[in-house]
Amino acid sequence: AGLGGSRLLGPVRSTGELLASQVPLPEPFRVPLPVPRVLQPVRREGDADRYEIVQREATAEILPGLSTPIWGYDGTFPGPTVESRSGRTTSVHHRNELPVPTVVHLHGGRTPPDADGYATDLVLPVGAAGNIHNGPSKHMYMHDPDAVVTMGARDYVYPLRQRAATLWYHDHRMDFTGPAVYRGLAGFHLVRDEVEDALPLPHGDRELPLMICDRSFAEDGSFRYPSIDNTLRTVPGVDESYVEGVMGDVILVNGAPWPVAEVPATRHRLRVLNASNARRYELALDPPPPGGKAFTQIGSDQGLLAAPRTHESVPVAPAERFDLVVDFGRYPVGTEVTLVNRLGSGPTERVMRFLVARRAEDDSAIPALLSEIEPLERAQATVTREFAFRGGLMGDRHGWLIDGQPFSPTRIDARPRLGDVEIWRFVADLHHPIHLHLVNFQVLSRGGHAPGPHGIGLKDTVDLNPGEAVEVIARFDGYRGRYMFHCHNLEHEDMGMMGNFETM
Ligand code: C2O
Ligand code: CU
């Protein structure tokens, strides 16, 4: 039975519903924190680097003693980390050995439209019959005359004319991003540059990428997802009982459940990414460090801040990144420091643990000035647009809509002129983390006020709170073409909360 309109259209409690694991949950803080392998280029030539990734099925021992089938970039979850240089053309050859079509998006990338991973630009499985009717083709695929479908493999070419930042890559297939990412199709892509290299920030093994996400496990060790067996059929990717988004009860960091990392008593740079489908976190340290706030934020989604900023806790919505420095030197050796989630309950209150193992030299520092950010002023904007992100009925089923409409590849919702500065004003019925492709933006206002301590810097994803308007300001430059903007709650995205803008 479908859900009644009253529940759907009335106030919604949360963003996400818990799907409980059918196996006993493991003891936390036993599994060592894995760090994803850094991918080596197959070729470096002039100012271009070439990488190759095979998307394939594999199994992983995520919960001790259990084997979990995954879909992985190079068969791992998270996928390998790509480390590239700002300004060098990075091309990644992706070969699809999975049983379903895929689309790769570099989240946060300033990417020409043909390589941006548009949701209908499918890469069909190697050996597929060459007929997208074999895939999960809601009729809309056939109605996108601009879709570029490739057989088996393709290159994604990234000019990376952008500053150093913590980017990530993940699947983006129309209607099926939720189940594909849940199964493991996500990895880090770190862009580095000279500005950042010149700073004395913690580096080497004192710089840790932390991909935080939640999963639920079935009795046989596989990931539990409401529609995980539907991925080959012609139905949308989400079971109707999970319209609000899928949340698991196991917190993974870099693919390991509640891991533990032994760290020297020095500063560490934590590049936090929330890669969850729907779960939001508020991260804090327990115990908090004596004398001072837990985190010094040095960067946001799109790289370094102008100046560092300290926080006791940090809210992280799906797809957001926070670049944080924690000084473990403030704790006595032997302290167990737990990274906690103030929005969780029970097992999801904890994320991971650091064990302060030994004294060590620390030559790192956090400079008072980190990078230059050109502030965009309200007066620079030529256009103000408004978009409402709300649930509603899409035919007879629940959908998540922008201005009352579900995603369609053929409808352009905004046509910014290339180079123009625009203000986009968002309103929402509940939490929706809104992401714009191509551009970075600054948060101008939240609820009519200055954006608050966590909204600083250059961002590409902003979390909307129920009933609160948020204004962002962006310069739409880079490339001409069709790009998506959408809610990054992946179930909301799959259920229609996505639109198009076309830079002209
Ligand atoms: Cu991280 Cu359009 O996505
Ligand atoms: Cu949403």
From TrEMBL:
Metal-binding among keywords? yes
Write out the entry's keywords from A to Z: Metal-binding, Oxidoreductase
Family annotation (InterPro entries)? Cu-oxidase-like_N, Cu-oxidase_C, Cu-oxidase_fam, Cu_oxidase_CS, Cu_oxidase_Cu_BS, Cupredoxin
Biological source species: Nonomuraea diastatica
Protein name per its UniProtKB record: Multicopper oxidase family protein
Lineage, broadest ranks:
Bacteria, Bacillati, Actinomycetota, Actinomycetes, Streptosporangiales
Name any one Pfam family assigned in the record: Cu-oxidase_2
Q: Can you give the residue ranges of the Plastocyanin-like domain?
A: 58-119, 399-503
Q: Which family does it belong to?
A: Belongs to the multicopper oxidase family.
Record keywords: Metal-binding included? yes
Q: Which PROSITE patterns match?
A: MULTICOPPER_OXIDASE1, MULTICOPPER_OXIDASE2
Stretch forming the signal peptide? none
Give the residues annotated as coiled coil: none
Could you cite one Gene Ontology molecular function of this protein?
A: oxidoreductase activity
